[in-house]
Specification:
single chain; alpha+beta; Peroxisomal Thiolase, Chain A, domain 1; 15 strands; 21% strand
Amino acid sequence: MKFERAALPVGHLWSSPFVRWQGALQDVSSIDLAAAVTNDALDARGIERANIDTLVLGTTVPQASSFYAAPWLAARLKLPSISGPHLSQACATSVACLVDAAMRAEVAPDAMSLVVTSDRTSNGPLLVYPRNQGMGGSPAVENWVLDNFAADPNTGQPMIATAENVARDGGMSRERLDELTLLRWQQYRTALADDRRVQRAWMQPVRLARGKAKLLVVEEDQGVHPYTTEGLARLAPVQPGGVVTYGMQTHPADGCAGAVVTSSERAKALDREKGTVRLLAAGFARAGLAEMPKAATLAAERALADAGLTVNDLALAQTHNPFVVNDLWFHQRTGFDLERMNVWGSSLIYGHPQGPTGLRGIVELVHALRERGGGIGLFTGCAAGDTGAALVLRVD
């Protein structure tokens, strides 16, 4: 899927901090979080609400009243006359939302879409399904978050089994995976240097009224554990006989991210100081059964092919890597330098709220490219159901 004119102004991208689940945002609806963070982001960047003609909302975990999510959020963003789609594609939701907005920019150059992605994995809903044929009419019950983490209904296997399957196929050793995990931690630490200079350029703090005269403020990621060689080595594999430990996988989180998508001409006019991001191509793919980490590489290959590029054209890459196995498989398949991936951190370390995870990664990629003076970058990540989504972009 190739784009010719879709773009984002660099200064019109943001993400909230990510908070480990059951933390400070555990009781905050993702719609409330989206309203608070996005209003503050629009105001801080001087984005004229009158110029926005479509809202694209992405979430994956149902919240109270989310039947009305997109128009309700639009009203709370002081956009009373617009609405738009409410999309959900598991961990590929951010890319799906950006693609939807990009297609509008392709056909209507004056269009300006606001993309908002938000999720709360904490305190996920408990759904009760009527079941008249059950014993005594007893209902079926599903814990939306926990039950879907536990197993893919198509294969019956948990997500961690997909990481083990790919690690086995790739001949990945425990030591090599620990080593790469530690590199990802060190990269995240670089984004915290100089009083978080790197993150302050795009991170939008959470400020939420909570009761009378109370304000919940979250200014930086919370719940990120430190990593050490010794600490990683002490962890036992999650599955008997395996190599993947809890240290090599991400943690669920809560958070929100956003972007403005329009034509390249309009993006330049909106942000002449920081530059623009040209969206070049997107790709979606599906790997074999219970081989989810492979899907990110497949999606990347498809997006690069549609853009008429190869990995040799990339300055940097950013991944949604719920398992470090994802990154090592990508490296083995493409030869791309592991140190030019996730230069300021990744979801492996700072957590995974699902819907907004990809967009935060894209924000980090854009700013890392801008600091280098521009260039072509790739975002790619896997998603539930052995799927993947990728986006190729160029920072001018």
